[in-house]
Specification:
Layout: H1 18-38, H2 47-77, H3 82-99, H4 103-111, H5 114-117, H6 126-133, H7 142-152, H8 156-169, E1 172-174, E2 177-179, H9 181-186, H10 193-209, H11 211-232, H12 239-244, H13 249-261, H14 263-277, E3 283-284, H15 302-316, H16 318-329, E4 333-334, E5 346-348, E6 357-359, H17 366-385, H18 390-393, H19 397-400, H20 402-418, H21 422-439, H22 441-457, H23 464-479, E7 483-484, H24 498-501, H25 507-524, H26 530-539, H27 546-552, H28 562-580
Parallel strand pairs: 3-7, 4-6
Antiparallel strand pairs: 1-2, 5-6
Helix pairs in contact: 1-2, 1-3, 2-3, 8-11, 14-28, 15-16, 15-17, 15-20, 16-17, 17-20, 20-25, 21-22, 21-28, 22-23, 22-25, 25-28
Length: about 575
């Protein structure tokens, strides 16, 4: 199966492209001139000049993020190539030096009076200004902000890179061959139980052999977050994440509590159901996402996957199908599995004057098709939001997973509708429920693990065993008594990149899934003008607060029953599955 790799020529021809050095020289000049022109003068500017200053700032940021995107996209597919690693590091260091010239701007904007900032109320930037204003009391002086930015290269950023390099370099010896992380994890969904067991044992044993490094990194990342919390005056280590995501901690607490309250009725219930088909009272953890016994493993070609996903989006609305098709036609997807490539999947928004880029590790399973549908949803969202410009294109976490999870649901419903017999329907329902369990309950358990680690780390360094205990406590709580763990499972926290790259991000998935479940119910119930309202939601990017969007659909995340609506949809699928089975 020939799989696509992306074409990054819209950014630069290669990492040796002379335009890269020209752009850096241009950026250096522009950032210094910007500082000279506006530093200490924002309060004296008339309305037009103040708005123009933000437009200038936005243009500079777009060039910066274009360079960073290009470096990152090259790096994540070739992490073992020295010249690409070097290029990635050089870009990060050069960007840091340029950003130092711009730090004053955000600080001085927040020093302006409310009356002066009223200049922006009729501009497209009003929501950006309002969100930026929320950081005012947590900002430090310009000199301290510069220092924090410079130190990040040798603190958080360095340890993230060390984690990535460590994971990429791990070798999992299986039947005489050395496999990548992606390849060994793929074996956990093999139809052969012996292969799953052996793969799980090898994966856990390899993590155990390297657990000192991963525990060390986790301790440092957590301490760094704690230091930042104390310097800026946040109440909790997770507070900065919530502020960036434009959400109240109380809303997140409500989501987490609702999911926890549903562990027994949904998560535990499903794994008890699945264990019966494996002939045991308990399901081995390596069988959690395994194909059911006697289930025929269907290999889905890349072209078939493309048709399934594009058709599902087109059936919803032809505009969505056309945008989805752009990713395939223009080589905006990297789907090959290769050594040195990061595991998992993502859609990177890049910058408005280029295009989003999707990374997958496609291996022909139905789960890979759903992952493709998920990432295409992100890509469509990013593509539509680009018209807002770099400052407003990026969607806050509250809506970041909306289009992706909605796209998964469209694809699932399309496949279910076209399924020809009861066995196909059962298979699809099982797969969808497992995906939703992984999206909602697994991610909530991850979030509770992070809360436990960061809370305890603030009191002192954590041992490997202490981190592992928090992991096992939160996993057992979410998965229930029907799952049987071996000793090496306690090290599985170590490979989750979100814990290192973006602490506390994981609740985004649960938030998005439950929100989409409520949205999809509105769509199925024939909500008036649903598709146009949904299209506008995606187009808006970060220019409109998520609560305003939800009010268009008569939804309110602050209502106690909002999250339960999402949980009920999963319960209903469980009911359907048990009736068919």
């Amino acid at each position: 199966m020939t799989l696509p790799i992306w074409n990054l020529n819209q950014f630069y021809e290669s990492i040796e492209d002379n335009q890269i050095n020209k752009d850096f020289k241009n950026l250096s000049t522009k950032s210094k001139n910007f500082q000279k022109k506006y530093r200490g003068k924002l309060n004296t500017l008339d309305s037009n000049s103040l708005i123009n200053s933000l437009k200038e700032y936005e243009k500079i940021e777009e060039i910066i993020q274009k360079l960073q995107s290009f470096a990152y996209l090259n790096y994540c597919t070739d992490q073992l190539v020295d010249k690409i690693k070097k290029f990635y590091q050089e870009v990060e260091e050069k960007v840091s030096n340029i950003e130092k010239n711009l730090i004053f701007y955000g600080i001085e904007l927040n020093k302006l009076s409310t009356k002066k900032l009223g200049t922006f109320k009729n501009s497209k930037y009003v929501n950006w200004i309002q969100n930026h204003r929320k950081f005012k009391k947590f900002q430090k002086s310009e000199e301290n902000e510069k220092l924090l930015m410079e130190k990040s290269i040798t603190s958080t950023s360095a340890w993230i890179k060390f984690f990535d390099q460590s994971m990429t370099r791990l070798k999992f010896k299986f039947n005489g061959k050395y496999l990548t992380e992606t390849e060994i994890l793929n074996l956990l969904s093999s139809s052969d139980g012996k292969i799953r067991k052996k793969a799980a044992e090898i994966f856990g044993e390899t993590l155990k052999e390297n657990i000192f490094n991963f525990s060390f990194v986790m301790n440092i990342i957590s301490k760094d977050l704690d230091i930042d919390k104390n310097i800026r005056g946040f109440e909790f280590s997770e507070s900065s994440r919530h502020l960036s995501n434009q959400i109240e901690k109380s809303d997140v607490d409500s989501l987490v509590q609702t999911a926890t309250n549903n562990y027994s009725e949904i998560s535990h219930r499903y794994y008890k159901y699945k264990a019966k088909f494996f002939g045991n009272k308990k399901l081995n953890y390596w069988d959690r996402n395994a194909p059911y016994p006697n289930q025929r493993e269907v290999k889905i070609s890349w072209n078939e996957a493309k048709d399934i996903v594009v058709n599902a989006y087109s059936e919803f609305d032809k505009r969505f199908g056309r945008i989805a098709n752009l990713f395939f036609e223009n080589s905006w997807i990297h789907a090959q599995v290769k050594k040195g490539k990061t595991s998992g999947a993502f859609s990177h928004p890049t910058v408005p004057n280029c295009h989003p880029c999707i990374l997958l590790n496609y291996q022909g399973k139905i789960r890979d098709v759903m992952t493709l549908a998920h990432e295409i949803g992100h890509g469509i969202h990013q593509y539509l939001a680009n018209k807002n410009g770099i400052l407003l294109a990026n969607t806050p976490l509250t809506l970041a997973e909306t289009a992706s999870v909605f796209g998964e649901m469209l694809t699932f419903k399309s496949l279910l509708k076209k399924s020809k017999n009861k066995d196909q329907k059962i298979s699809l329902l099982r797969s969808k429920i497992e995906d939703m369990l992984n999206t909602v309950f697994r991610q909530v358990a991850f979030f509770k693990f992070e809360r436990g680690v960061h809370s305890q780390r603030s009191k002192g360094e954590l041992s490997e065993e202490e981190i592992c205990k928090i992991w096992m406590d939160t996993q057992k709580e979410s998965l229930g008594t029907a799952i049987k763990f071996s000793d090496n499972y306690k090290y599985f926290w170590a490979y989750i990149p979100h814990f290192i790259h973006s602490p506390f991000y994981v609740y985004a998935y649960a938030f998005g899934d439950c929100l989409v479940n409520s949205l999809y119910k509105k769509y199925e119930d024939g909500e008036s003008n649903f598709i146009e309202k949904y299209y506008k939601l995606l187009e808006a990017g970060g220019s409109v607060h998520y609560q305003n969007h939800l009010s268009e659909f008569q939804l309110n995340a602050k209502r106690q029953d909002f999250w339960q609506l999402g949980m009920n949809l999963i319960k209903n699928l469980m009911d359907d599955l048990e009736k068919l089975s």
